[in-house]
Amino acid sequence: MGQGLLSVTGIWGWTELSDRIRSGDIASDLLRPVPPVVSYLAADLGRGLHGMLTRFIGPLIAGALFFPLALPHRWPTVPLFMLSIVLAVLGSFGCRYLVNATAYWLHDARGPILLWTLGSGVLAGLYFPLRLLPDWLAVTLWVATPLPGLLQSPLDVLVERDRPLVQAGLVALQAIWAVVLLALAAWVQRRAERKLVVQGG
Fold first, then answer.
1. How far apart are CA 138 and CA 170, in angstroms?
2. Res 183: pLDDT
3. E strand map for 46-188
4. pTM score over 0.85
5. Where are the domains of the chain?
6. What is the pLDDT of residue 13?
7. What is the three-class DSSP state of 138?
8. Which H or E run includes 66?
9. What pLDDT, on a 0 to 100 scale, did the predictor assign at position 83?
10. Cα dihedral angle (18, 24, 29, 31), rounded to 10 degrees?
11. pLDDT for the residue numbered 70
């Protein structure tokens, strides 16, 4: 499930925005009637759906044919898990957009992207379950950063690690962070456009 979610959320590998900023092609994006945040988000949602169909559901069906699967015991878990995946994709996009947008000021976002690649794998729960950390640190990560919501939260919801109320709380945290990140991405984009106008870009 974790490997499938990794391809659905697309935490790594997206540098299109920073590449277009560095090359100057972003100017054509700014002439379009759709804001860059919206157009890139629409493309990313399509990418996530493709990943769900090819890298998540397909291997899940194949695994179910040859191995026993531990299915959820509570029926609300399945729709909550699906909502959690959507919110993870939104949160992942918001984080990646902000990291790529540093190219507006740095002109080369390879440094921030490298830091993002290293840090997100650790703090999203890819390399080890975040529940192995001390309770105070795990709670701090969940509340103060969006990263656990990109991978660890959907997996915890699916395996029913917590009571239903805690499951709902994890998804609610994902929703809050998704809204914050998308709003922050839109704000950064507006600031960057002002900078480009001032610079004559």
1. 12
2. 98
3. none
4. yes
5. 2-198
6. 83
7. helix
8. helix 58-66
9. 97
10. 150
11. 81
d(Cα 96, Cα 82) in Å, to the nearest integer? Answer: 21
The pLDDT assigned to 191 comes to 92
176 burial via Cβ count (<10 Å: 0-12, 13-18, 19+): middle
Residue 10: left (phi > 0), alpha (psi -120 to 50), or beta? left
Nearest Cα neighbor of 10 from 115, 124, 102, 130 is: 124
**Beta-carbon contacts of residue 158 (< 8 Å; ≥ 6 apart):** 1, 72, 77, 81
**Total residues found in the chain within this entry:** 201
Return the structure tokens found at 43.
């493309």
pLDDT at 4: 85
Task: Give counts: helices (H), strands (E), the chain.
Answer: 11, 0
Whether the CB-CB separation of 130 and 143 falls below 8 Å is answered with no
d(CA 1, CA 161): 15
DSSP string, 139-162: HHHHHH-SGGGGTHHHHHHHTT-S
All residue ranges of the chain with pLDDT < 50 are 198, 200-201
DSSP labels for 8-59?
Answer: HHT-S---HHHHHHHHTTHHHHHTSSS-HHHHHHHHHHHHHHHHIIIIIIHH
